[in-house]
Specification:
Rossmann fold; ADP-heptose-lipopolysaccharide heptosyltransferase activity; 6-stranded parallel sheet; glycosyltransferase; transferase; LPS_LOS_Heptosyltrfase; alpha/beta; 2 domains; 14% strand
């Protein structure tokens, strides 16, 4: 049985699909699991041993479709559910299942501030797509696989951080998901443990400004490491503080205690850190209560549409720091 799983983006969303491919491979004895995504996420899917073959979205659409047809898939599992995946499904002409995006319910929450969303994590909605094949959620949570060549060594870290550190993810796909610079600086000042700042090359300059509050305590790793290497830094952290971003889900894959900080988005969208049945792992969300304008989007904006950015400006940094110190790293 040959099955094509589709998820085009992004890092966090692809990590959230890993229970589906694992359960397909392990519970359907004859399954060959193929995965279609964007070339930008090649390293992410090719390191997953539960995926038998990877395919990539190409500019040559007709050529890509012809190569997919040659695979003679039995089923398509659509975990992206947009117009492009519809074109793929129509071209392949095999039985398919698509996950419930709940766009109407999300619109009601963002536009009318009425929450009619089911209390179901997106992972469980993904798993619904394979239930007809007799596949069930095994409760083992998310997966993330780091190739041996991309693992961090002690020499990659400053001496001050080799005995243990807290990971602080400073970036996010959109600005309304992330704490402003002055809040991140204040948080680092209050944390009484070594800190590794995590993010991409686009976060490097801001990371330098944050690290300047205490260059010994705070190490700026943003832009210095690949995705796999950054994931290994997450794996090595005693605790992870993160916005609603891909590295938060990678931290959950490694069963790390997580303090998540939410701006314009909300955990109610079904994107909170996911541990499966391993609920003993500590996670604590921080949201500013009582804001009539929140959530303003299911994704985010480059800047607050109302100009005040209260969902992050009113985050209580002292309480976040207290939550960190209530659970000393390593306990």
């Amino acid at each position: 049985m040959k099955i094509l799983v589709i998820r085009f983006s992004s890092i966090g969303d692809i990590v959230l699909t890993t229970p589906v491919v694992r359960c397909l491979q392990q519970q359907v004895g004859t399954a060959q699991v193929h995965y279609l995504t964007k070339p930008a996420y090649k390293d992410l899917v090719e390191s997953n041993p539960h995926i038998d073959r990877c395919h990539y979205l190409e500019d040559d659409w007709d050529g890509m479709i012809e190569r997919l047809k040659q695979e003679r898939f039995d089923y398509v599992i659509d975990l992206h559910h947009n117009l492009r995946t519809l074109r793929v499904k129509r071209a392949l002409k095999v039985k398919s299942w698509s996950f419930r995006k709940l766009n109407i319910q999300k619109w009601i929450l963002t536009a009318l501030k009425i929450n009619v969303l089911p209390k179901v994590h997106i992972v469980d909605r993904y798993m619904e797509t394979v239930s007809a094949l007799g596949v069930k959620n095994d409760g083992k949570g998310l997966d993330y696989f780091i190739p041996v060549a991309d693992r961090i060594t002690q020499e990659d870290l400053p001496m001050s951080h080799r005995a243990g550190y807290i990971g602080l993810v400073i970036g996010a796909a959109l600005n309304t998901k992330k704490l402003p610079l002055h809040k991140l600086k204040a948080l680092c000042e209050r944390i009484q443990h070594p800190i590794v700042l995590l993010g991409g090359p686009e976060d490097r300059a801001e990371g330098d400004l944050i690290a300047a509050v205490d260059p010994i305590k705070v190490y700026n790793a943003c832009g210095k490491f690949s995705l796999h290497e950054s994931a290994d830094l997450v794996r090595g952290a005693k605790l992870v503080i993160s916005h609603d971003t891909g590295l938060m889900h990678i931290a959950a894959a490694f069963r790390k205690p997580i303090i998540s900080v939410w701006g314009n988005t909300v955990p109610a969208f079904g994107m909170a850190p996911y541990y499966g049945d391993r609920s003993m792992v500590a996670t604590r969300p921080f949201e500013v209560p009582g804001l009539w304008c929140r959530p303003c989007s299911k994704i985010g904006y480059d800047k607050c549409p109302l100009g005040h950015f209260k969902c992050m400006e009113r985050q209580d940094i002292d309480k976040i720091a207290e939550a960190i110190h209530e659970r000393p790293p390593g306990t």
